[in-house]
């Protein structure tokens, strides 16, 4: 086991761990007020306090699920290249982290779709 593999293993687990942490914070510690610094900030999520709370909790839940799903998959993927050469380890790590980032970004269209399903264009809750 090389030092580079250990470094790559740790970096491959960072995105899922950060997603789980940020998801936890958005879901359980939703920012109380609409702001431009912290939280899920899109035009639709900032319509009013209800859309803000909904979007932050929804995105937080999605990120927690994504992170908890990616964590074991990432560990297994990196475990399979443990004995490989440095170039192979680096390539797999780069591919894995890129896929993780794409998955992380998918939370935006999922959350926007949920917002539009639950609220009209003015941020008023739709009757279900």
What does this structure look like?
70% of the residues lie in helices and 0% in strands. With 128 residues, the protein is mostly helical. Helix 2 (49-80) runs antiparallel to helix 4 (107-118). The longest helix has 32 residues, at 49-80. It is elongated, with a radius of gyration of 18 Å. The model has no long low-confidence stretch (mean pLDDT 95).
What topology emerges from the helices and strands here?
Layout: H1 3-28, H2 49-80, H3 86-105, H4 107-118
Compact description:
This protein is mostly helical and 128 residues long. It contains four helices and no strands.
Radius of gyration: 18 Å
Regions with pLDDT < 50 over 5+ consecutive residues? none
In total, the number of strands is 0
- Shape assignment: elongated
Give the integer mean of the pLDDT values.
95
Bin the helical content: over 70%
Terminus-to-terminus distance? 55 Å
**How much of the residues is beta strand, in percent?**
under 5%
Order of helices and strands: HHHH
State the major sheet. Answer: none
What is the count of helical runs? 4
SSE-based structural type: mainly alpha
């Amino acid at each position: 086991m090389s030092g580079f593999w250990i470094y790559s293993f740790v970096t491959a687990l960072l995105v899922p761990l950060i997603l789980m942490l940020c998801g936890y914070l958005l879901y359980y510690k939703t920012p109380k007020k609409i702001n431009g610094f912290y939280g899920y900030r899109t035009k639709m999520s900032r319509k009013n306090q209800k859309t803000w709370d909904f979007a932050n909790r929804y995105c937080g839940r999605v990120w927690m699920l994504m992170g908890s799903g990616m964590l074991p998959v990432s560990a297994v993927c990196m475990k399979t290249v443990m004995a490989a050469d440095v170039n192979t380890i680096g390539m797999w790590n780069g591919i894995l982290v890129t896929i993780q980032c794409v998955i992380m970004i998918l939370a935006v269209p999922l959350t926007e779709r949920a917002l539009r399903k639950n609220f009209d264009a003015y941020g008023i809750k739709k009757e279900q």
